[in-house]
Design brief:
By secondary structure, this protein is α+β, with helices and mostly antiparallel strands. The chain has a single domain, classed as Porin (Beta Barrel). Helix content is about 15%, strand content about 35%. A twelve-stranded antiparallel sheet has the order 7-6-5-4-3-2-1-12-11-10-9-8. It is globular and about 40 Å long. It comes from Collybia nuda.
């Protein structure tokens, strides 16, 4: 089922190199704290926090049409894409049937997360670092980083304190698994993380 490389889709040039993240400088859309990432290996090696697991399942035929299932098998989101063509929209519905987020697949795709991320280009919301080794993400005035390492893409905090692991994403046989901390969920990051996972595994170029 999975025939595409999410690192290539995401624009990362060398995800196999765990040290490449330290070789570049922040782009214009990124926070000016490159020295923080020297601590990443220590953050990864530390005892991981308790993670809540969600699975993207029932692909039809891809993650652009799927269900997101959480603890106790509860459906948290339905992801629906209107067509495979440019100009189509991917909508994220919560259990109440309300639209939680949307991606519009123009030549320059846009993204919006209800109540948290104003409509903007996906390339701006999840911008590549200058060395193309990770992506930054702004959410409610705070910066985060999606960092690929081996077969896992991890979400870290960015700031004056050492990076903190908030989520990680990996492929499984018939699904994509998102593990996210309770702290991140309480901070409202679940919607944004779900949208980011779909972007990263969409098989489409989003900037």
């Amino acid at each position: 089922m999975f025939t595409n490389n999410p690192y290539a889709q995401g624009g990362w040039s060398n995800p196999a190199n765990p040290h490449s993240i330290n070789n570049g400088t922040w782009g214009s859309q990124s926070p000016p704290q490159p020295s923080v990432y020297g601590a990443l290996p220590h953050a990864v090696a530390a005892t991981p926090p308790t993670l809540i697991t969600f699975h993207f399942v029932a692909f039809s035929p891809s993650i652009l049409n799927c269900s997101v299932v959480g603890p106790q098998g509860r459906k948290y989101y339905s992801v629906s894409t209107s067509s495979p063509n440019v100009g189509a929209s991917t909508l994220f519905y919560n259990p109440e049937g309300q639209t939680a987020a949307a991606i519009e697949w123009h030549q320059q795709p846009t993204v919006e997360v209800r109540g948290a991320v104003a409509k903007q280009m996906t390339s701006q919301w999840m911008g590549l670092s200058s060395d193309r080794s990770y992506r930054t993400m702004e959410f409610r005035g705070k910066w985060y980083a999606w960092v690929p390492r081996d077969s896992v893409i991890s979400l870290f905090t960015v700031g004056p304190t050492p990076p903190e692991l908030l989520a990680r994403v990996c492929r499984e046989k018939d699904s994509v698994k998102l593990e996210i901390t309770a702290q991140a969920v309480q901070a409202g990051l679940l919607d944004a993380a779900v949208v980011a996972v779909v972007l990263l595994h969409s098989g489409r170029n989003f900037g």
